[in-house]
Write a structure and sequence with these properties.
The complex is a heterodimer. By secondary structure, chain A is an alpha+beta fold. Chain A has two domains: 200 residues, Sandwich (Immunoglobulin-like), CATH 2.60.40.420; 108 residues, Cytochrome c-like domain (Cytochrome Bc1 Complex, Chain D, domain 2), CATH 1.10.760. By secondary structure, chain B is mainly α. In chain B, helix 9 packs across helix 14 and helix 12 packs antiparallel against helix 14. The radius of gyration of chain B is 23 Å and the shape is globular. Classes of the chains: A alpha+beta, B mainly alpha. The interface between A and B is large, with 88 and 94 residues.
Chain lengths: 347, 557
Amino acid sequence: MHISPVLWQFLVKWLTNSALFPREASTIAPYADALYFFLLLITIVGLVLVGGLVFGFAIRYRKDRNPVATQVEGSTLLEATWTIIPLALFLIVFVWGALLYFRIYNPPTNAMNIYVVGKQWMWKAEHPGGQHEINNLHVPTGQPVQLTMISQDVFHSFSIPDFRVKREVIPGRYSTVWFEATTPGTYHIFCTQYCGTKHSGMIGEVTVLTPEDYKKWTEGSTSGMSLAQNGERLFASMGCNACHSGNAASRGPSLAGVYGSKLRLASGGEVLVNEAYLRDAILNPSQHVTVGYAPIMPTYQGQISEEGLIDLVEYLKALKTNYRVQQTLTTSESNQAAPMTPEVVKP
Amino acid sequence: MSTTSSTIVNLPDQRTATLPKKNYINAEDGMLSWLLTGDHKRIAMLYLVSITFFFFIGSVFASLIRLELLTPQPDLVASDTYNKLFSMHGIVMVFLFLVPSVPATLGNFLIPIMIGAKDLAFPKINLLSWYLYMIGGIFTLAALVLGGVDTGWTFTTPLSTHYLNTHVVTAGLGVFIIGFSSIFTGLNFIVTIHRMRAPGMTWFRMPLFVWSNYAASILMVLGTPVLAITLVLVVLERTIHIGVFDPQLGGDPLLFQHLFWFYSHPAVYIMILPGMGVISEVISTFSRKRVFGYTAVAFSSVAIAVFGFFVWEHHMFIMGVSNYSALVFSLLTMLVAVPSAIKVFNWAFTLQKGSITFETPMLYAFAFIGLFTIGGLTGVFLGSLGMDIHLTETYFIVAHFHYVMVGGMLMAFLGGVHFWWPKMTGRMYPESLSKLSAVTSFIGFNLTFMPQFILGYLGMPRRYHAYPAEYQVLNVLSTAGATVLGIGFLLPLIYLAWSLKYGAIAGNNPWQATGLEWQIQSPPLTENFIETPIVDYEAYDYEWLAHKTEQEVTTVG
């Protein structure tokens, strides 16, 4: 047998590059793979069992060897056996899978947050420090990273196979996923939900860096303004501060320290203020009126981009006092008090 | 009589045998007599021809997809074209082939005969359902000819309602209309099985094929209207922006997913249950034994139908549904896997102490058991919450449902067509060629879809026109397999057509099977039975059959 050296090299390269099994590059990956191997084991055992029974019986009881069949009604004992054993196995898989699911979808409290906006056909990542990336995501090793994601148009799905994580990216609502990368390198990002013409072009790379390299990268690629700083500017330029000034007499509630608190709503009931709530309250204010306030805030639907909303949310998350809000407001009001063109006197 | 020890085939003497002078095929002549017929057997043949036509259209799309995926680069077709190919492949295969495949052809032909009735309860509605199917099919073809549709077979909003510029409404209406054909078929079966059983044909004397079609009919009648509503909402959202699914107008995009999968998960059981019925008949016949645990197999069909309605959210585990509802749906998904396991073991034990022969339908049944076991067990991977996160929306899921739908349902369909071909046409298919095609499809199938499980775990997303170069080897294997599989599917088309004219005369009961359909002439009379049969024996009672044959010999002799 002679194998062409080119083919041989190709096969060796393919096998050594682990073409049958993805890399394990996050802390979750080994957990997912453990369940995968357990499931593979069940499948192989089940297949061997069924195959053994079918082939065994087919050989033992073929017509040549067993010309006359013996009629058998059935057997309650056997029925019970092959009901209970598969059920028990499936229940183990259920519990194991549920534990893994909660592990993947419940981020640890110390996770750093990065925003991801999906749109036809690109991924935009927004780091709190003001680093913006397209179809790329830089993360450090050894640090839990939470992605807060939203779509600007259709359903997308953010998948990093080598981390074994994936989450649907939905228009109009935040979804989150977290991971902790373990090995520096670059890994595929795929959009796995069909999203139109260039679905297969909606791909990117996660670049995992050591903490030192990551620090260098953050410093070298910041846009100069953090998300919260951008948000502060928007807060003033859109006039949010006019009502949400923190003054006792102002028409809107104070927003300092509101993030993470429990809010009583005019419609009754209590909500936990998180990113999703803040976003909804800006776009659909009439549905989220704080108790004691009038439903006078206009909707900002269509007036602000998803990135702008992220800036505002980040700003509000960090907002602890109204000192700067009021300062900005005073400055802008004093500007208005400056000499203006006299009004035209109507006859 | 030509029986060797390794076969049960029992054909009349070919030198003297003729087809019955009067039968449903030659009862009336002319195209109109077929197009206006109320005979369930003729309608079944109309369906058989039409679904075969659509199957080959769907296969052409599949071949083009596999050809494109030979190379990582997008080189054979443009991205939009590729998206249309997999969308049309899904729509045609699911709605125009898989859903009607066994029920509308074999079910239509056999259910009335199996329970000793002259026809279905509503023959005209039966014909109407074929016309609806054809109209729906024409809409789908129109969408194709006008330039195609690229929503994927799932019509996902808001992509389908706001972002695509293709013939979504035409295709949606097509599927909407086909849905009614399926509702009518289901309704007809339910009424027929309840009201028209021959004297003595109690529920627990019915062949398991009837049970499984009964269970599928319940799903068709209760599930399909939800699909119809969903598609109407998509069309309205697209044309007049009613804002049910659009978040900009206060709609909920996840609502579409709930509604769509509320039908489309039970639809999976609509597709597989009748196939399971075929397997029960075939395995019993070729092992000369009653089906092991008849009641367990019958009730497991009903259990699948009932549980099948409460698992739809497992298509949405990563879509931000509540973690706790995900728990409930994952648990129910595990439960629905159990009745399928019960069936597989009962089939295996039907073989025990049998007297087994290996004609083509039996080979297809063996292929079914193996492939369905793999398809079913990989479904457990996907039902398991944490595992689903990594596997969903990848080639793993593509491989999984092809193992169930093609490896399961299509194998069962082909097995059933071969099994009842002598009854439907009065002639035998060529045995060795058909064995070759069964083995070819089995090998081709595994070569096509086994690599896709590996691709899926590696992370290759489904519906990708281009893919990273490291996935190429497995994709080439898959395409090579698809070529073999294609040959395995083309062969039966050719030799079955050939056998219509040149096949050996089959006689009433070439397989020595026990069902009522085998006790009448092949092809049957238009009215099936000369006098209404009185059933005084259980299903799969081979002793009764032996006794009956003995008596006939003595009376005739």
